[in-house]
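[audit] Reproducing an earlier prediction to check determinism. Same input, same settings, fresh worker. If the tokens differ from the archived copy the diff job will pick it up downstream; this log only records the rerun itself.
[audit] input (232 residues):
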Amino acid sequence: MHDAPLAGLAQVAGEPATVVVLDDVDRRLLWLLAQDARVSQRRLARELRMSPPAIGERIARLERAGVVRGYRVDIDWSALGYVTVYLAVTAIQGADQSQIMTAMHQLPEVADVLVVTGSMDMLARLRLRDHAHLRTFLLERVWQIPGIQRTETFLSLAEMPSKEFSPELLGLTDLGWQSEAEAEPTDTEPTDTEPTDTEPVHTEAVHTEAAGRERIDRAAIDLGAAPVPSPL
């Protein structure tokens, strides 16, 4: 057994991000991108009453700072026949939890895995098809990982839509500026024809998920880690 079973987590866990100072325009820009990550720079320029090059520079700066980590599709996995299951994992006393976390993360059914406080050691969110898939997943994969003492599954019976973005967290308590921008265009507003959806707003790499492309609800901006789910 490992003398310090939690010591390796620092190597496998993500580094905490540096806090970035945002102004009001940055916050509004993030809000608009969170609504539709494929919106054009011309449209953003009209909403925020800025020039498209200025919008492009702000987006590039947010990407360089790590505030915007990428752009991805939002797949409705239930439409592909998958249900959400949460798996609580308890490790054997003294087991290297970084190795367990890494092994769990590599399993294709695991959407994310977190080390948590409390009676359990880890909590993983899974995408599974049915009871038979769960049985195979536990018997042939999870329970073969060295160091796991016990697991407990929680089946999701009902879920609220995921909150990809909360304007209140950025201090955007009044979104009246959005309708005002649409109703009162200025002389500096771009007058060219609105570009099509094939003209994405982002300037760096685009991240997509290959699986499940048959059902894509919308594009989404990736602003941060997924929230820790509460077991049912």
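[audit] rerun output stored. Observation attached for the diff report: The mean pLDDT is 79.
[audit] end
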